[in-house]
Amino acid sequence: MNSWLELAEKKLEAVHLPLGRAEYARTYHLQTRLHELHCQGKIADTVITVEHEPVFTIGRSGSASNVLVPLEVLEHEGISVYEIERGGNITYHGPGQLVVYPIIDLRSQGRDLKRYIRNLEQSVIGFLAKVGIMAERRAGFPGVWVGTRKIASIGVYVKHWITRHGLALNVDINKYHFGMINPCGMNIEVVSLNELTKEKYPLTKVRAGILSEMEQLFGWRFVEGDAQQYWKEDW
Amino acid sequence: MTEVRLPDLGEINEVTVVDWLRQEGETVVAGEGLVEVETEKTTFVVEAPQAGKLALIVKRKGDKAQINELLARIS
């Protein structure tokens, strides 16, 4: 049996890159670049956290037909639409939502896609439990649910066993925007953390809570990194 | 002839083929992404085990595949 000291020493250092609020396309380029660098063995496991400007993204099983409003309405609301390579259908990102993009090597996490998804879900479920909210999984519908309402969405892409994309947790979102799509291609209701709690949680507090859960689940110790060194001017 | 099989993905039993990144007759290099499969909201890229020509696609877009099932052959 390992002693506590041995287990503590086994913790891997992972880099947290807090982007604050950032536009989707720039962040997409950043995570693609980091994914490439990780595949080349040039960076350690890295977790981007970000709050996006309003955007709909459509995954590999998705279709633009799940956007329920005309293009003019999207333009008026300043919402862009991107078709991307992650799994899943359509989702919304926007202010009041914590988005987490782990760029990590699953070979050091047991080469198990289901376990990875379960750990992402558990980081949300564990944090929510600490603020008094009982959330759960639903078999066959990855993500995190509070009753019948979805509070966190998941969509992942894995190449060379390195991940990108990740999870999005609704903290205080614009539900009018979410209402413009069939989230995940289904007619489901979404919910934000701050609708369920008396205390109104700022995104930074939620972020700290989720990262702390991830450290436990993935066996990491986070160090903060500087995203600026990876940004390119033409993004 | 080299077989391209769905690798062990952990607890996952079945995936759906979402897109072939190379078509039959095209030359592929070892380690390059050949086909995207999806399960549990995850897109996983299956790589070419060795260089050659993608001779035959066995599982087409939309088909289900089990772990270790034959996806394609490279000559």
Question: What would your notes on this structure say?
Answer:
- The complex is a heterodimer of chains A (235) and B (75).
- Helix content of chain A is 30%, strand content 30%.
- Chain A has seven helices and eleven strands.
- In chain A, the strands form two sheets. In chain A, strands 7-8-9-10-6-2-1-11 form an eight-stranded mixed beta sheet. In chain A, strands 4-3-5 form a three-stranded mixed beta sheet, with no helix packed on it.
- In chain A, strand 8 and strand 9 form a beta hairpin.
- Chain A is globular, with a radius of gyration of 17 Å.
- In chain B, the strands form two sheets. Chain B has a four-stranded antiparallel beta sheet with strand order 1-8-6-3, with no helix packed on it. In chain B, strands 5-4-2-7 form a four-stranded antiparallel beta sheet, with no helix packed on it.
- The model of chain B has no long low-confidence stretch (mean pLDDT 96).
- Chain B has strands spanning 2-5, 14-20, 27-28, 33-39, 42-47, 52-57, 64-66, 70-74.
- The A-B interface holds A 59-61, 85-88, 110-117, 142-143, 154-160 and B 8-12, 18-19, 31, 33, 36, 38-45, 47.
- Strand 9 (149-159) of chain A pairs parallel with strand 5 (42-47) of chain B.
